[in-house]
Amino acid sequence: MKYTVDENGFYGRFGGSYIPEMLYPNVEELRQNYLLIMQEPDFQEEMQSLLKDYVGRPTPLYFAKRLSEKYNTNIYLKREDLNHTGAHKINNTVGQVLMAKRLGKKRIIAETGAGQHGVATATVCALMGLECIVYMGEVDIQRQAPNVARMKMLGATVVPATSGSKTLKDATNEAIRDWINNPEDTYYIIGSVVGPHPYPDMVARFQSVISEEIKAQLKEKTGSENPDYVVACVGGGSNAAGAFYHYLDTPEVKLVAVEAAGLGIDSGESAATSVLGREGIIHGSRTLLMQTEDGQVTEPYSISAGLDYPGVGPLHAHLHQSGRAIFESITDDEALQAVLELTRLEGIIPALESAHALAALGRIGAKPDETIVVNLSGRGDKDLNTYLDRFELHGK
Amino acid sequence: MENRIKTLFVQKPQELLSVYFTAGYPNLEDTVPTILELERNGVDLIEIGMPFSDPLADGPTIQQSSEVALRNGMTIPKLFEQLKDIRQQTQIPLVLMGYLNPVMQYGVEKFCSEASEIGIDGIILPDLPLADYVREYKGLFEQHHLSMVFLITPQTTEQRIREIDSHTDGFIYMVSSASVTGGTNGNAVANTDYFQRVSQMGLQNPGIIGFGIHNHETFTEACNHASGAIIGSAFIKALAQEGSLQQNIQTFIQSIKQEA
Fold it and tell me: Which one of A202, A224, A244 terminates a domain?
């Protein structure tokens, strides 16, 4: 297992646990217990039952016929957009809320950017009757009003992060500070494969149900469990981690990680961390990070609020550095084109994040007899205002 | 080579007042005048904050001072330039406090070597884990005669406190209660069980209590349980008052040392 985490919490040179002492007991408690708890039969039983009957798993693996014709290859879509709450995020929050319960925690905190992870957290907290506090950048609260409304409807308290750039990285800082201030009763549900060890590994494991299902479903449809390519978008990288997970040690399956180029790599308005980042420390993890020469974290940009994170999960930094994954970057305009393309060819409106993965289809150069699985991580309901504006569909 | 931190604790084992401020705050060139004025007012040890964009362990006051300092143009090279002649002006023990990333980008070895050359005595990097320090950096810090100061909290186990104690030779920074800096989770010095537990452990390093110490009362109380106390956020707030830097510092330090 060359690409999974080692006993010290590292993926190659990335990962680790760079946290102040105030967080050490909490993170250590989790590190010592997460694998044991995940292996407990009653934990697995409760989680599997919720994933099936509550989340709606397994999600379909859909052969996209017209899209395949257009690219002259065989394209399957892993329909994470059909999960309850509209994205893959809930795979992780179901797992982590059960983890929190096993650890005896009563109060759940989370960070959110676009609001998908916040909604998925508020949802499982409502289900379990747990107090839920979601930190969200003040700027994002204004940009993502429908998801703020959903969280409130679900009984969560949404706390604006007013520090720094008032977006995802600052919401994460505020959630971490909350955890420092409340070390006994609080559990922090991180939404991506970021943060101090064991979070990146734990979140990847909870999301790995995606590639576990892809393998079985593809085998049933094509006779082989291995596609030629698995394609997923990467912000922090949780849906990609889940889609890649069971293929990490199968080198004949090419992994394609798609980052947001924003207005273009060289525009100064981008979120393509693998291109623009250098090794550094963010949110407790050593990884690739967009920063100034002096080591101050910079604010990324993408039209997609779920991809504008200045770092990337340490697993992905390792996949990039080792060459195991191919990294592509897609601009706002290319992603928007891909939204329209999928909508009109297949009748599926994808999330802006997932559209970045779709937009990479033209770059891959797959042959007619090859197979591509694209992880369709979320649906586009939350992005409809952007779509109506950009496609000039208002009033038509 | 003389270790100013060790000498300080020998000469003054009690009621030691340590003050933290953010370099380059409120104005870029205030760093050196602040150090000199603190010394003139009888402060024993100074922690110079190196501002970072994402200070995880800090509350709103130090976050804001860091933002201002960064906007003012504070960087590690700028700070080292400001401090290059500081040892011709004062012998007060100086500790640099910041986050790991800017130091890593500057280069840890270069950072240690230049800090040592300036006459810095100790370093606090709250997000550098003990295990990583011991594995990768301890030799480097020792070679440059820099004391690495670690934090402990009420939740830190005895075993871990002993481990920390064995790897440092300056002092132990006792975080008063579970909080970020400037925290107001009740009385900062109410946790007497914790302070007693630590003082009875017979550690080789002295302890200073920090986080939430903000006035004469909390300072005195903290000094009853440890060798001294660290004041950060309350001092930063004082610097934001109307009036000259010198006046603000004098008024604040006097208010700490004696009841108003």
Answer: A202
Q: How many domains does chain A have?
A: 2
Say whether both A352 and A211 belong to one domain: yes
User: What CATH number does the domain containing A170 carry?
Assistant: 3.40.50.1100
Q: Which helix (H) or strand (E) holds A343?
A: helix A332-346
Measured CB to CB, residues of chain A less than 8 Å from chain B are 16-22, 24-25, 163-164, 169-170, 173, 176-177, 180-184, 278-284, 289, 291, 293-297
Q: Would you give per-residue pLDDT tens digits along chain A (396 residues)?
A: 689 999 999 999 999 999 999 999 999 999 999 999 999 999 999 999 999 999 999 999 999 999 999 999 999 999 999 999 999 999 999 999 999 999 999 999 999 998 999 999 999 999 999 999 999 999 899 888 899 999 999 999 999 999 888 889 999 999 999 999 998 899 999 999 999 999 999 999 999 999 999 999 999 999 999 999 999 999 999 999 999 999 999 999 999 999 999 999 999 999 999 999 999 999 999 999 999 999 999 999 999 988 989 999 999 999 999 999 999 999 999 999 999 999 999 999 999 999 999 999 999 999 999 999 999 999 999 999 999 999 988 776
Which residues 57-96 of B are in CB contact (within 8 Å) with A?
A: 57, 59-60, 63, 67, 70, 75-77
Check whether residue A68 and residue A186 sit in a common domain: no
Here the ipTM equals 0.94
Peptide bond into A350 cis (omega under 30): no
Q: Of B54, B127, B152, which has the smallest distance from its Cβ to A164's Cβ?
A: B54
In sequence order, what are the beta bridge partners of A157?
A133
What's the total number of domains in chain B?
A: 1
CA distance B185 to B194: 16
CA B182 to chain centre: 13
B255 CB near a chain A CB, below 8 Å?
no
3-state secondary structure of B122: strand
The first and second tokens of residue B153, run together, are: 């909290």
Task: State which amino acid sits at residue B202.
Answer: G
* Residue A4, in any domain of the structure: no
Question: At residue A279, what is the residue type?
Answer: E
H and E: helices and strands count for chain A: 17, 14
List B18's β-bridge partners, or say none: B45, B230
Residue in B58, B114, B165, B221 annotated catalytic: B58
CB A213 within 8 A of CB A83: no
Nearest to B152 among A21, A283, A297 (CB): A21
Same domain flag for A76 and A124:
no
CB < 8 Å from A in window 197-216 of B: none
> Which domain-ending residue is among A149, A178, A202?
A202
What are the start-end ranges of the E strands in chain A? Answer: 10-11, 14-15, 61-63, 74-79, 107-112, 131-137, 157-161, 186-189, 229-233, 254-262, 278-282, 285-289, 325-331, 371-376
Within a 10 A sphere around the Cβ of A365, how many other Cβ atoms? 10
